[in-house]
Amino acid sequence: MDAEVAVIGVGSVGSMTLWNLAKLGIDAIGFEQYGIGHDQAAAGGESRIFRTAYLEGPEYVPILMRAYELWRELEAESGHDLLNLNGGLMIGQQDSQAMRNVLASIRQFELPHEVLDQPAMADRYPQHSMLPGETAILDKRAGVLRPEFAVSAAAYAAEAHGAKLISHATVTDIRSEGDRVTIRTPDREYTARQAIITAGPWSSRFVPKLKSHVTPYRLVMTWYLAREPANYTAEKFPIFIRDTDDAHVFGIPTLDSGSVKVAPHAAYGAVHDPDNLNRTVEIEDLENINAVVAKYLPGLIPNPVRVSAYMDGYTTDGQGLVGRAPGEDNVWILSGFSGHGFKMSTALGQIGAELATDGRTALPIGHLDPARFAD
Ligand SMILES: Cc1cc2nc3c(=O)[nH]c(=O)nc-3n(C[C@H](O)[C@H](O)[C@H](O)COP(=O)(O)OP(=O)(O)OC[C@H]3O[C@@H](n4cnc5c(N)ncnc54)[C@H](O)[C@@H]3O)c2cc1C
User: Fold this and answer.
1) 129 in Cβ contact with 298 (< 8 Å)
2) ipTM for the complex?
3) Rounded distance, CA 328 to CA 28, Å?
4) Do residue 248 and residue 138 come from a single domain?
5) Is residue 237 in some structural domain?
6) Low-confidence ranges of the chain (pLDDT < 70)
7) Residue 167, ligand 1, Cβ within 6 A
């Protein structure tokens, strides 16, 4: 047996799973097809949003609160600053489902926040133009994560705890028989008692029963120059999500003293082969986001100075998959995080480690059960 638990894909969630397994003293091995901290899948592009007052629904809040604790633990262990908690503005029509979910999260879990009406927004955050009927809620437990640093920090911390890390090794097959799982790479076969699939946009290749329910989607990220960069620093410009009539976008303060990331909070179309993601960003990809920037963020020049394309696995209901792979005893899947999984990856890693070793977790994952999709 090469390890107790094998982790297939050491990206966002896989690196955190490996770290959590290794912390528990479990003999673990991780396989990654690219280099550690690469930008070829879901974790590239310099920054990710962390937020707790969750517009996707309050059922995520316990996972997010645990994720926050683990981000701080990973920072302490690795010596890297991974999460800058500079606050987050959730902007939308007062009666929208997203804003109702934000408020429900706040009320149910007594999250630190401020409700900002239009005069307060004009006074404190004049970078944003507000529409009639829009309101903003400042989530005080929100901020900016550094994905490449985070994945590397977790993977190398796992290694320091004794995990084996095999990079540039593509897993071509996973076979579960009796009490063992055989993992095949082009070079050799490995065996483990349990396997955890954290292969992101590639995951459904290993779980045919989920194929029609989880699809890779392309996401384009765009950075715009600020006319006055000093107004867009982390101190002055919280991360934001705007979910309103013609604008479903998120934004992140400048990390390079000049450009501000503002990008669509939605995917751009299915990726038929994740090995061949179209990374060319065309003018048609940009028209809508440029118009949103011109309308809602007049302090930015509405012509991006940097663009890039990434992808994530999306499920048909927008909720991730966390649990036993359908029809498999010793194989688990954590995938399909549908454009919002990075912030919770530390806690997902804990959940993955607990499932593979105990078969259960105390964190609430009922809404993420893959069995809801098994054909
Ligand atoms: C542009 C963009 C912006 C986003 N913004 C946010 C945000 O602000 N906040 C947030 O919380 N979330 C955000 N998300 C979502 C979040 O980044 C993803 O949900 C999360 O990173 C998914 O993690 P993952 O581990 O499932 O996938 P990945 O991070 O892609 O990891 C999968 C890994 O598996 C490896 N792999 C695949 N197949 C194999 C194989 N056969 N053998 C070996 N290795 C393999 C891949 O190379 C990869 O490293 C965003 C996503 C995108 C694309």
Assistant:
1) yes
2) 0.99
3) 19
4) yes
5) yes
6) 375
7) no
Between CA 221 and CA 228, with CA 227 as vertex, the angle to 5 degrees is 110
* Last-in-domain residue among 312, 330, 364: 312
Q: Which of 202, 215, 218, 252 to mutate to test the pocket of ligand 1 (most atoms within 8 A of CB)?
A: 202
CA distance 26 to 23: 7
Residues 93 and 116 in one domain: yes
- Answer yes or no: is the C-beta of 310 below 6 A from any ligand 1 atom: yes
CATH number of the domain enclosing 188: 3.50.50.60
Range of the domain at 233: 85-143+215-312
The domain that holds 234 is classified in CATH as 3.30.9.10
Q: Is 343 in the pocket of ligand 1 (CB under 6 A)?
A: yes
The pLDDT, as a whole number, for residue 126 is 98
* Same domain (yes/no): 308, 324: no
pLDDT at position 267 is: 78
Number of domains in the chain: 2
